[in-house]
Amino acid sequence: MNLFRREMKASRKSLLIWIVGIIAMVAGGMGKYAGMAESGDSMNELMADLPKTLQAVFGVADLDISTPIGYYGVLFLYLLLMAAVHASMLGANILSKEERDKTSEFLLAKPISRDRLLTAKLLAGLVHLIVFNAAMWASSVLVVGQYAAEGESVAAPIAELMLGMLLVQFVFLSAGFAVAGAGGRPKRAVAISAGVMLLTFLLSVAVEVSGSIDFLRFLSPFQYADAAEVIESGLGLGFVLTGVAIAALCLFAAFVGYRRRDIQV
Amino acid sequence: MAVIELNGLTKTYGGARGVTDLSFTVEEGEIFGFIGPNGAGKSTTIRTMLGLIYPTSGSARIFGKDCIEHGPEIKKEIGYLPSEVFYYDNMRVKDLLNYSASFYKKDCAGRIKALAERMELDLTKKIDDLSLGNKKKVGIVQGLLHSPKLIILDEPTSGLDPLMQQRFFELLEEENKRGATILFSSHILSEVQRLCNRVAIIKEGRLMALEKMSELKENTYKRFKLQPAGQVAPGAFAIPGVTEWKQEDGEVSFLYKGNINEITRRIAELDLRNMWVEEPDLEEIFMHYYVKGA
After folding, report:
1. ipTM, 2 decimals?
2. For residue B269, what are the domain limits?
3. Contacts of A119 in chain B (CB under 8 A)
4. Cα separation of A22 and B100, whole Å?
5. Based on the domain organization, do B181 and B271 belong to the same domain?
6. What does the pLDDT look like over A21-80, one tens digit per residue?
7. Which of A10, A103, A262 has its CB closest to that of B53?
């Protein structure tokens, strides 16, 4: 528990900064909606005139941006990217920093097993994800609710989107964990983890743009929480299962790899 | 009872670093010197004992238990001071020591206070702001605060001023009297000379010698310096045990290991103006091992 507590305390400040960023992103992003809503359907038409590729890049292809939740769906892609950056960096950093800062020689001379060390770090990471997600959830419901018409419920689709975000966060946290735990290059773990995350983002954009490589959707967690789809019909069970399986595999690799390898000092 | 047993311990990295077929035993209550130049494999050996890295072959046992299998269990009774002290920078000394203590299931508050007072360590400072010597003190307190049965020190004195070094040695002697076994790794030989009962000398990852300090110093080697009245015949001291023979400015000097009567008989045949017999310091002996191995 001491390790867990220490981890929570050490990253308190950075988590706080992220939360401020979340609120700013959600409030700032939705703030633009107020101005746009007045122009009514013309915005939808303008977007429809854009080339298909650009629509895909902006994520507006299948969303009705004249409604608050539709507009939020466009914004969601960027919120999701933000969550992915946070999770992939957190997962790699929380573990690799001990080796990078040469504190692992201190820590592992203590009477704890590597499994226990990893478990404590993983728990701390998960709590971070949940706090991050909760802040996103709360600020989204509050802000989007401001623009919602009388009687229109935005809480349900937002809840679904947030669960999707949590899934994506979990996958990237686990991937970062695997890179830092099983990989032999703790100094570059954060960069590699973020790189992998960006690659899957590009893949996700490519899938949107081409429209003909749908079978690759499972390879990019960003596709698991596609806003238009989730708002329309909820999270896909296949994506949830795939995400959980990938995360489990990553965590397994992290534990086994970390147990076996030499600690770099 | 053997506290540390190394059996053919071998660790190879991609390159040349590492240790090869290292075997020795440290008995309970010993202060054991582990000496060798930088890069000889001292830290590698210690890190293997702590389970930070895994041996390529061979094994290390502490308190009779395998270092890998029973790592967490044996580490309850180990205090370790790494050669380079890096700790979480944004922590205060007090926080770090409490954090360190929280891994052991005993109350260490009193010990922390006493040790910090003894080493004149300010508990309220941020670790970031400390000088190298003061960081080293944090390391010392951190390594001793749970009253471990085995204390492993990797180059512990670098950065400490002579007064603090003195105090640190007294502290170690007290711990030793209390029953703690100490493994003291160093390349500074004079400090090993003063504290240790036995030494292992390691070079390029191999064990060069394993001797009792008393034997190493007293029985084994003597440095002879002679000032003969006339010329010394070149073959006059050509007996086994004589090394580092030097003759210059009318003086003859050499190291001798062996039966002392043998050598005095030879010396008695000479017409001498003056003569010195000295205990060589460990440095000289060490250099001797060095040269022999090269």
Report:
1. 0.82
2. 222-278
3. none
4. 35
5. no
6. 999 999 888 888 877 767 666 767 777 777 777 777 776 667 777 788 888 888 899 999
7. A262
